[in-house]
Write a structure and sequence with these properties.
Layout lengths: L3 H13 L3 H6 L2 H11 L6 E5 L5 H8 L3 E6 L2 H14 L5 E4 L12 E7 L8 H11 E12 L4 H12 L15 H8 L3 E10 L2 E3 L2 H11 L1 H9 L2 H16 L9 E3 L2 E9 L1
Parallel strand pairs: 1-2, 1-4, 2-3, 4-5
Antiparallel strand pairs: 5-9, 6-9, 7-8
Helix pairs in contact: 1-10, 3-4, 7-11, 9-10, 9-11, 10-11
């Protein structure tokens, strides 16, 4: 695996670019699904790993939980703090930190969740070990990830043709595969269940979706702006072609399916 500190710096730069909060607003339904499936209750201690701009942490707090949100990217945490203040949730703990090395004592949390985030940490086994370590005995996890075969996985396939991922780093979509997740988490957890669903993106045209993600979504934004103009134009065209495959025959509008999986399990 490449140098860890260099990868972390690259990850921070990727997720700080664009305008992720605009993308996050379009996936509120994912956070809601995670919180409902985790059955988060009042007074439970909840950790949201790779919390981004706070979607899942805020929903957990709305249920009365004692919430900590952790993310590698301070720019995203600043937005999460602002959103929490606007909602009157000044008791959420926001912490800059690394999913591969959580700065919490063993068995700190009753529930550990993640929506669209934990999956991007490069050393997946370290992350899985840390999730197990900080989850209390009998505690629960609800970890959401996009699937490789779904719309987000297909978008990353297009991106990777133009800007290949670092050699030696496993695909983030391993977290969207039941067998791989069982292998990562292993016997530290029991009573595994998997829920599959879809969070579609709607638009009038394929061009609208392509430009939204080029402008706002860190990985796509960063890739596009790293390319020479002719390559960037080809990249945009390939994204448009991808989204064109999701147009509905009735009206020609786009319904881009973003299929995902939630891993639910209990700490052994």
């Amino acid at each position: 695996m490449p140098d860890s500190s260099e990868l972390k710096q690259r990850h921070r730069a990727v997720w700080a670019s664009g305008d992720y909060d605009q993308i996050a607003q379009g996936i509120q339904a994912v956070a809601d699904h995670v919180v409902r499936s985790a059955r988060i209750r009042a007074s439970e201690r909840v950790l949201d790993i790779a919390c981004g701009t706070g979607n899942t942490a805020l929903m957990a707090r709305a249920r009365g939980a004692m919430v900590t949100g952790l993310d590698l990217t301070p720019e995203l945490l600043a937005i999460a703090r602002k959103r929490a203040a606007e909602a009157g949730y000044d008791d959420i703990t926001w912490k800059e930190g690394d999913a591969e090395s959580l700065s919490f004592p063993d068995a700190t949390f009753d529930v550990v969740v993640s929506s669209c985030g934990l999956m991007f940490a490069p050393d997946q086994q370290k992350v899985a070990n840390e999730v197990a370590r900080v989850t209390s005995r009998g505690g629960r996890i609800a970890i959401q990830a996009w699937t490789r075969e779904g719309g987000v996985g297909r978008m990353f396939q297009v991106t990777n043709r133009y800007v290949p991922p670092p050699l030696g780093v496993p695909s983030p979509f391993e977290w969207g595969d039941e067998a791989e997740v069982r292998s990562l988490l292993g016997s530290s957890f029991k009573d595994y269940r998997f829920e599959r669903y879809d969070c579609p993106e709607y638009a009038d045209t394929p061009e609208q979706v392509a430009d939204l993600f080029i402008d706002r979504y860190g990985p796509t934004h960063r890739a596009y702006h790293a390319l020479a103009p002719e390559k960037a134009a080809a990249f945009r065209k390939d994204l448009i072609d991808l989204y064109r495959g999701y147009t509905t025959p009735a009206d020609g509008k786009v319904r881009w399916g973003r299929e995902y999986i939630i891993t639910l399990a209990r700490r052994a």
